Amino acid sequence: MPDEKRPYRMKKRAELEEATRRRITESAVALHGTVGPARTSVSALAEHAGVRRSTVYRHFPDEASLFAACTAHWMQANPVPDIGGWAGIADPDERLRAALAALYPYYRRTAGMMENLIRDEPVSELVQKHFAAYRGYIDSCAGDAAAWAHLTRPGARARARRDRPRARLRHVALADPRRGPGRRAGRRARDPAGHVPLMPARLVTIPISHYCEKARWALDRAGIAYREERHVQIVHRVASRRAGGGGTVPVLVAPEGVFAQSADILAYADRHTEPAARLYPEQPGLHAEVVALERDFDADLGPEGRRWMYFHLLSRRDLGTAYNCSGVPAWERRAFPVMLGAMSGYIRHLFAIGPATGAQAGAAVERTFDAIAARLEDGRRYLCGDAFTAADLAFAALAAPVIVPPEYGTALPAPDELPAEMAAGVRAFRAHPAGAFASRLFREER
Questions:
Q1: Contacts of 295 (CB under 8 A, 6+ apart)
Q2: Are 295 and 386 in the same domain?
Q3: Quick one: which of 48, 53, 46, 59 has its CA closest to 19?
């Protein structure tokens, strides 16, 4: 009888050992994805897996064996896109679009783990060793030089607009993971080959913020890969500071540094834009004019449009929950109704919103609109020169609170959903020549 039970016991013990090994591996993957390999200690791993340190060492006698198991487990769950899925497509445009469609979901899904691995690569030989294969994959993605060659040729603005998806893929596929995101300006890390970074930048935002829309628009237009991290008001201050900003949004955490003002983000995006589609003209006089207008819009139109919007919407809890929380973490969405009272008081104090704000802010916006309408009276299509510039983008984005464009980078309520007084104001601003100009820019350029 004892001999008959021995195979069963051995099989059961083997199953338990395998389950323990798998639990340790999964715990290591989880910790690598949250704190990174360099900060994952054996003690933390044992605690996470619910085993003793000696059990970890029994299954994985050294860090190399543990890292190999983690890599295999993670790669099985997150296989890289198959290059064969687009390599056989003859048409270059279609091939690039197919590659883009395959690569971007992969980057979104693996962004947290990849950021930690990139950060730890300079201090971990194991990360360096395993990233060698990944860099080979990236080189394979970029191997068809003919597919990329025509991307750098200057051309008409219409073609530059049409080719934005191709520019996005070039930004991603010609990347190298040696430079990690989140480096501050002045402390730039570059690999010996000077390659463009792989990981998408991180943009910290409030979803409905028009300054954040200004940044999104510029990054989208430049074809720069980024991951948007959305937060509700008040929470955004903590997120901004953690990202390296000063408590306001947008904040862009890019491989080259941290950019904490929308104007700085536009300038950053422009450095990654093809010459034919640049937002800042090269001609000194025209460049100065564009920068001056953008600065004026940032200082006047942006704050007054925001005050006008908050004056009308702070009392509408339903609209705040439906539109203000789009894409924010689940806990922020759940806490929003509870936070709304304190949040409203904070916003009223911060932006000096009182009984007369609606009329005062509306009048200030109208003065800016009148000045823009006067500028457009000569029939010009853009504010400066004969091309779309940062001045146009800034004006349209910062006019958004009063024209509520359907092309906005996140969902906004339709006029019929708004309070009656605000809805009437939106329709009036849309009908204004400057409002119609901003609406056209959203339709044609956004």
A1: 263
A2: yes
A3: 59
Domain around 157: 90-197
Nearest-angstrom CA–CA distance, 111 and 115:
6
Residues 68 and 109 in one domain: no
Q: Within this chain, do residues 183 and 332 fall inside the same structural domain, yes or no? A: no
DSSP string, 157-213: HHHHHHTHHHHHHHHHHTEETTS-S-PPTT-----TT-PEE-SPEEEEE-TT-HHHH
In whole angstroms, give the CA distance from residue 326 to residue 329: 9
Instruction: Choose one of 242, 276, 310: the last residue of a domain.
Output: 276
List, for residues 369-396, the tens digit of each pLDDT value. 999 999 999 999 999 999 999 999 999 9
Report the C-alpha gap between 127 and 87 in whole angstroms: 29
Are residue 135 and residue 183 in the same domain, yes or no?
yes
Final residue before a domain boundary, out of 55, 77, 99: 77
Q: Which residue in the block uniquely carries the two structure tokens 């050992």?
A: 17
Does residue 304 belong to any structural domain of this protein? yes
The span from the CA of 300 to the CA of 370, in Å, is 13
Q: CATH number of the domain at 328, please.
A: 1.20.1050
Quick one: tokens of 249?
A: 């949004």
Q: Are 425 and 308 spatial neighbours (Cβ–Cβ below 8 Å)?
A: yes
Give the percent of the chain with pLDDT over 90: 40
Best CA proximity match to 323, nearest among 214, 209, 211, 413: 413
- Could you tell me the pLDDT band of residue 178, with boundaries at 50, 70 and 90? very low
- Whats the size of the chain, residue-wise? 446
**What separation, in Å, do the N-terminal and C-terminal C-alpha atoms of the chain show?**
78
